[in-house]
Fold this sequence. Notes:
Layout: H1 15-46, H2 52-87
Amino acid sequence: MPADENLSIPVPEKNWRMGFWSLIATQFQGAFNDNGLKFFVIFLILGTNPTESQKDFLSLSLGISLLSRSSCFRWQADTSRTVLANEA
Length: 88
């Protein structure tokens, strides 16, 4: 190998920082909007002076929706990961 050959080590681009912070901002916005909507609905219902049974129903319905969505999305992620792994 000649000594005058220019060997260069590839330097990663600095554009990853913009993508990283864009992802962080998007995740924050999604979580903020989800929690904001949840609290808005809760306070909207609580502002009507609900009975104890209505409060229990509100807690149960929000809890069930959270659990069902998370398990559904987990199943979807596992399925897509399996499909992608089988294609590789």
